[in-house]
Amino acid sequence: MIKRILCQGYLWLLLLLLYAPIIIIVVFSFTEAKVMGNWTGFSTQLYRNLFSDNVHHSLTAAFINTVSIALITATVSTVFGTITAIGIHNLRNRRIRRAISFVNTIPILNGDVIIGISLFLLFITLGIPQGYTTVVLSHITFCLPYVILCVLPRLKQMNPNLYEAALDLGASPMQALRKIIIPEVLPGMVSGFMLAVTMSIDDFAVTIFTIGNEGLETLSTYIYADARKGGLTPELRPLSTIIFVVVLLMLVALNRRKVKSESNT
């Protein structure tokens, strides 16, 4: 009895430590106070400022850049990550398959600073001007291994005879891929896509090395520059709240879909 109470108390303490900062941001997004912690009454003015054309145009631009980079990164990483995972899974030689899988984990184990410096030196060596394109390429580089790791387990769980049976019944390799393999690995693709979006939005170290000096900003670089000025823009609180709510709703929808599909099977 005591052991169960202690375990539950420890779990609730961890949840409190994880979500207390988010709850504080959500609460203080509904007040006009410029300094967090100073409640001046309930107000939605910060939300109105966030969607106003005349207020914090740079923050809106940084948010649009962040979302567009994340969506492009996640889409490209999911497509190429799925193709790569299928290729790794179908390798006959176990040593080569293990070697490629090991190489795939190196970017995951490496620190973001090392990846950022390496890509920075690569772009400088190749003479590629830094900006939007280099940020997208950099994000694809470190998101791709995670997508591969999300898709590979689904391929291992799939019945290998389904693809061969489809070919024997007259389907072309592309038709078998589209109608047999893709539906089987779709949950892994969705998980990889969501993970790539989250990692791209969250990244700072790689972005700061590859963003260049053209004035391009993402949310992470905007917050960093804002913090160096001695404070954070109050409109960051409602923006963080909106991002948190959207991600939460997406996770709830995905979990409900997963539970429904498992109950149907």
What does this protein look like?
This protein is mostly helical and 265 residues long. It folds into 2 domains: 64-231, MetI-like (MetI-like fold, Orthogonal Bundle), CATH 1.10.3720; 234-265. It is built from 11 helices and no strands. The protein has helices spanning 2-28, 45-50, 57-89, 94-109, 112-126, 132-157, 161-168, 173-202, 205-210, 219-228, 236-264. Helix 7 packs across helix 8. The model has no long low-confidence stretch (mean pLDDT 84). Keywords: Cell membrane, Membrane, Transmembrane, Transmembrane helix, Transport. InterPro entries: Bact_Polyamine_Transport, MetI-like, MetI-like_sf. Pfam families: BPD_transp_1.
Question: What is the CATH domain class of the largest domain?
Answer: Mainly Alpha
Mean pLDDT: 84
Rg measurement, Å: 23 Å
Helix content: over 70%
Question: Which range does the strand content fall in?
Answer: under 5%
Low-pLDDT residue spans:
none
Shape: globular
The CA-CA distance between the termini, in Å, is 37 Å
Q: From N to C, what is the helix and strand string?
A: HHHHHHHHHHH
Task: Fill in the CATH topology of the largest domain.
Answer: MetI-like fold
What's the CATH architecture name of the largest domain?
Orthogonal Bundle
**Count of individual beta strands:** 0
Count of DSSP-assigned helices: 11
Helix/strand structural class:
mainly alpha
Biggest beta-sheet profile: none
